[in-house]
């Protein structure tokens, strides 16, 4: 546990590193591109692939740069695709996503269990609980109805998302020594 807090302290210094800022910005651009390929299942339910860019960025650059990028990307994402009123709760989702992915992937070996647990936490906390809560607050819909629709989608997408995430992180692990980060 002590090593984790040392890693967090060291990663806080990365915010001022130009290579880190540029790398995270490139992954943010990739996230914008991947989010253009949404698949809408319902007006409030969609399949996205932007999380893959976030996960790769978290693997390479860690929590602090990616949590800041998540906050900024929330504003950029809303400015590019304003679906309804802006709600700051989604910024918290982006920050939590970066924190969870960084906790499991940054300076850690790529393991199937890490991918499964990280994705499960994101699904439970961000997608099922917080997204449903934010939409319930914003639109007055029933929280439990929103959770039910999201639960079905996430049960179906969980193995697909985990497989894509695992393959992406394995590829990142192969190229990381060449990048000299």
Automatic annotation (TrEMBL):
Membrane spanning residue stretches: 20-40, 47-64, 84-106, 118-139, 151-169
Q: Which InterPro entries match?
A: ECF_S_folate_fam (IPR030949), ECF_trnsprt_substrate-spec (IPR024529)
* Keyword terms of this UniProt record: Membrane, Transmembrane, Transmembrane helix
Q: Name one GO molecular function term.
A: transmembrane transporter activity
* The protein's name in its UniProt record: Folate transporter
Q: Which organism is it from?
A: Dubosiella newyorkensis
């Amino acid at each position: 546990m002590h090593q984790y807090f040392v890693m967090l302290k060291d990663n806080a210094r990365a915010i001022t590193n130009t290579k880190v800022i540029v790398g995270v910005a490139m992954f943010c651009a990739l996230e914008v591109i991947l989010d253009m390929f949404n698949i809408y299942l319902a007006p409030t339910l969609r399949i996205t692939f932007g999380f893959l860019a976030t996960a790769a960025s978290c693997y390479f650059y860690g929590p602090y740069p990616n949590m800041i990028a998540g906050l900024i990307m929330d504003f950029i994402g809303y400015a590019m695709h304003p679906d309804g009123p802006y709600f700051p709760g989604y910024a918290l989702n982006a920050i939590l996503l970066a924190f969870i992915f960084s906790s499991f992937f940054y300076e850690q070996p790529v393991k199937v269990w890490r991918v499964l647990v990280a994705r499960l936490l994101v699904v439970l906390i961000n997608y099922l609980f917080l997204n449903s809560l934010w939409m319930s607050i914003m639109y007055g819909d029933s929280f439990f109805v929103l959770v039910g629709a999201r639960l079905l989608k996430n049960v179906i997408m969980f193995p697909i998302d985990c497989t894509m995430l695992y393959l992406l992180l394995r590829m990142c692990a192969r190229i990381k020594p060449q990048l000299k980060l």
